[in-house]
């Protein structure tokens, strides 16, 4: 059958059938279609919103957990330093007079600065006598946010109860040197923390930053959290409560302090603003359309067994665009106990998840309004809860339904006329188009055959302004590109040979150690790197080895790897120390990667064959592995270190490990243990350890080759997903 007839039949079938179907079913069917579209859109929007909110809840939980660990480590540091100083009776008196505040007056008060990072609500009405600058305060209304005066260069010592300055003098002298520690912690935590406090049993309260804003009768020893820590003797979180100085909603992380005789002497405490962590979790939430609150299942009684206690929520007042409090002051505690409850099974699931510190999203009514309830844990069975009405997500679906109905009604009016016009038009178009198709297609087919036979000068010799003309033009453009790609493949092959030549021809021959290494690329060029570098400052029986992995692979990774090799070799020739070399290489690579997004992990080590020591730096790389055949145990060379190319000024730290005779040091890239089998299973570090264990009696080079062979057998023909590199050093 001729092309013209095939085209006529196809065009008539696919063009007229839909028209006749629409004509037959009529307006009612089309309206049903619009309704179905609206329903599906609603479902899709709700599913998308549910997934997005669930991801947001999980992300918030992870972020809050990370910050919680940071708080724990910071408090542990303060706790240890405070106990050390408080139990040291030989501390000389301080040269500078301490800043002491009492309920009646202050002693040696330094200059306080109104800090926008520390705000509180004004409790006094307009015109009332206030401390400080009366002219400045004259326009302040009750409830307004005002800056709190603090000092970042002093610790303030509050004397609670009947404690006198003379009685507190000895403890003040012991705590005053903690100023630098407080400053360091404040610098690390930045806006994540409000106050750092040391509270002693005698009533002395040391606070940083220093201030004089405590209420006159403030005595933390009477608070439940203080008594709880004293009784339990362990680090604990408090439920959100109002801070005594700023009147804002805060958490408190507290650790006990003990004397040399094991006697409880006080607590170290971090006052943490609620808003800072939770505001980040709410970055995509429109708080004007949602209810945002902190809830818990603690402190329930029998009458509220199936309820959640509301600890805090977003304030009702609108926050001005130019006001961004660092510590989230728009979080407020309810003036009275407030309980949240719904009579349905989903709410019981919510209570269980809050108790078990889970995150998630539930579809549930809020006072009769269908809503999405998003929740994620904070700590101690406290969760952030966001309630958003469903109609906020489905408004677009309702508008789309109306638009579809109006469009369908307009289109049906011209269906009959369009059907007749289409029949005539298709018949004419099919005839003329088919005539213009056959000749160009034939010429194009001949040109393709010539190219397939190796004739790079063959071209499709016809011109047309339609798609066939574009096809011919693209074909003619493609042929030189294919020839160029062929040349590029040859060049890549040469580049691969050049890159392979950069690797050491063989490991160094050093007495008392046996060294082996191997590298396999996943593409023609790769980003893995290993080298053995002469150590100009270390001696003849000491050698330096380096293994690295550039993010990604291919040409760009190979270029970065080559640059890193050049930097390391240049620096090693100058007698640089390990830390100096790592720091300088990181600086140079960071400049190279500034606009590329690439980075490079690296493990650098200096091995002394006589003393059997390994000095090493780990820059984001997999930790080194040490196998002891005598005890059949594996150890890891861990340690902190950021990948190269991320932070130009990152300070690297050198570590030292003493090796024993017979121990085996293995350095590797993640392409080995991440290699997948056809079933999707990774090769894994456990299997790599077993290969080392089974072949520990063999030479280092044999162990290296066997590991890569096992990886190849594990893949069973699958291509490598990443470069694989390994270095094995046996201490004889």
TrEMBL record:
<keyword id="KW-0378">Hydrolase</keyword>
<dbReference type="InterPro" id="IPR036457">
    <property type="entry name" value="PPM-type-like_dom_sf"/>
</dbReference>
<dbReference type="GO" id="GO:0016020">
    <property type="term" value="C:membrane"/>
</dbReference>
<dbReference type="Pfam" id="PF07228">
    <property type="entry name" value="SpoIIE"/>
</dbReference>
<feature type="domain" description="HAMP">
    <location>
        <begin position="435"/>
        <end position="487"/>
    </location>
</feature>
<dbReference type="Pfam" id="PF22673">
    <property type="entry name" value="MCP-like_PDC_1"/>
</dbReference>
<dbReference type="GO" id="GO:0016791">
    <property type="term" value="F:phosphatase activity"/>
</dbReference>
<protein>
    <submittedName>
        <fullName>Protein serine/threonine phosphatase</fullName>
    </submittedName>
</protein>
<dbReference type="InterPro" id="IPR003660">
    <property type="entry name" value="HAMP_dom"/>
</dbReference>
<dbReference type="Pfam" id="PF00672">
    <property type="entry name" value="HAMP"/>
</dbReference>
<dbReference type="InterPro" id="IPR001932">
    <property type="entry name" value="PPM-type_phosphatase-like_dom"/>
</dbReference>
<dbReference type="GO" id="GO:0007165">
    <property type="term" value="P:signal transduction"/>
</dbReference>
<dbReference type="InterPro" id="IPR052016">
    <property type="entry name" value="Bact_Sigma-Reg"/>
</dbReference>
